[in-house]
Amino acid sequence: MTQDKGPKVPRLPLDWRVCAEATARNLGLTKPLEELPAEH
C-alpha cells in the first residue's frame, strides 16, 4: 500500500531557493522551507 504524501511541489531553481531561504531566515522563520505552511 502506498501512502499519499499530498500534492507534488515543484522544486524552485537554485538561485530562487537561496533567495527564499535567506528571506525566510531574515524574517525569523527557522524551519526549512519544505516544513513551512504555504501562507509563509
UniProtKB/TrEMBL annotation:
Protein's name in the database: Uncharacterized protein
